[in-house]
């Protein structure tokens, strides 16, 4: 059984017991969160697709950790203009573990 959920403006295919890193969620570590934007649920050959969401379907997850991703280096340059700009960015994330998928 798996589901497709939307959180942080992105869509993720999730299954029970799986860990994934999503955009930062303001929740404490070891707390339960409920993802209510479920777009699709598949159980074997039975597939339910929402328009755009499935009413009443939820995915329950536990917050495992918070962290920051790899550093992305940004470099801008205008040739012949003596302009260079260096910048870096580290995106915050929340690591969650999927506990249950309810239709």
Automatic annotation (TrEMBL):
Cellular component terms per the entry's GO annotation: cytoplasm; ribonucleoprotein complex; ribosome
PROSITE patterns according to UniProt: RIBOSOMAL_L21
Keyword Ribosomal protein recorded: yes
Pfam family, one: Ribosomal_L21p
PANTHER family xrefs: 50S RIBOSOMAL PROTEIN L21 (PTHR21349), LARGE RIBOSOMAL SUBUNIT PROTEIN BL21M (PTHR21349:SF0)
GO BP: any one term: translation
Native source species: Paludibacterium purpuratum
Subunit structure, interactors included: Part of the 50S ribosomal subunit. Contacts protein L20.
Keyword Ribosomal protein: yes
Job description of the protein: This protein binds to 23S rRNA in the presence of protein L20.
Protein name in UniProt: Large ribosomal subunit protein bL21
Entry's Gene Ontology molecular function annotations: rRNA binding; structural constituent of ribosome
Keywords: Ribonucleoprotein, Ribosomal protein, RNA-binding, rRNA-binding
Protein family membership: Belongs to the bacterial ribosomal protein bL21 family.
């Amino acid at each position: 059984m798996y589901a497709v959920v939307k959180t942080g403006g992105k869509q993720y295919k999730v299954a029970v017991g799986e860990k994934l890193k999503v955009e930062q969620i303001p929740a404490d570590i070891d707390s339960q969160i409920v993802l209510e934007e479920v777009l699709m649920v598949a159980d074997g050959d039975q597939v339910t697709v929402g328009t755009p969401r499935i009413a009443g379907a939820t995915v329950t997850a536990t917050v495992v950790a918070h962290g920051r991703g790899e550093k992305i280096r940004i470099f801008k340059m205008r040739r012949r203009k003596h302009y260079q700009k260096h910048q870096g960015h580290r995106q915050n994330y929340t690591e969650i573990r999927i506990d249950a998928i309810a239709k």
